[in-house]
Specification:
Aminopeptidase; 9 helices; 7 strands; alpha+beta; seven-stranded mixed beta sheet; 195 residues
């Protein structure tokens, strides 16, 4: 395990895509194989407000955990230094979202902000993705322990994350680590835990 950086971009984008369908391979869903990683992994590797760790085995990077100790600062940094370049190359589909790629383009142009009531108590957030070869052997727990400790050192008193309801395995993993439901809708959960 080591700290993640810009040199991990291609690997993290690939892992994001290969786990992007509620933990399953999302490659068949997207025409642009880079777009999912650009939305969900890229800014953490490029902006100083982001941080993370990668798990490396004999085949290379097998998983990552990426996040930010201060969600509001990270959102502002993305607005200033990440989304503008993507907006210039990915036109806004507006209300005409017809594909998974269009849904991501819509997120680029109108990124959702974490709810105030969540951020006030759980100011940090994270994303974790592991390739199948790294699952089930404690790698996820090690990555989570590392980033949660870092958030605590940086002064965050709580952390939140989003997960699709369909990703039951991930939900079980998060619950085992002490995460509880903060907000839910038909397709997803927002989970949090104190640090």
């Amino acid at each position: 395990m080591r700290e993640a950086g810009p040199e991990d971009r291609a690997d993290c984008y690939d892992i994001c895509l290969r786990t992007g369908d509620s933990g399953a391979d999302a490659t068949p869903l997207y025409t642009d194989p880079v777009l999912l990683g650009a939305v969900y992994a890229g800014p953490y590797l490029a902006l100083p407000e982001g941080l993370g760790y990668v798990a490396v085995d004999e085949q290379g990077v097998a998983g990552y955990v990426l996040g930010a100790a201060d969600t509001r600062a990270f959102e502002a940094a993305c607005e200033a230094g990440w989304w503008p370049a993507l907006r210039a190359t990915h036109p806004d589909p507006g209300a005409h979202v017809r594909s998974p790629d269009d849904r991501l383009r819509r997120l680029i142009h109108d990124p959702p902000l974490a709810p105030d009531r969540v951020v006030s108590a759980y100011p940090a957030h994270l994303h974790i993705d592991l390739l199948p070869r790294a699952q089930g052997g404690g790698v996820g727990r090690l990555l989570m322990d590392r980033i949660l400790a870092r958030f605590a050192v940086e002064g965050a008193r709580g952390v939140h994350l989003g997960v699709a309801r369909a990703n039951e395995r991930a939900i079980g993993f998060y619950r085992h680590l002490g995460f509880e439901t903060l907000v839910e809708d038909a397709g997803s959960l927002l989970l949090g835990r104190a640090l």
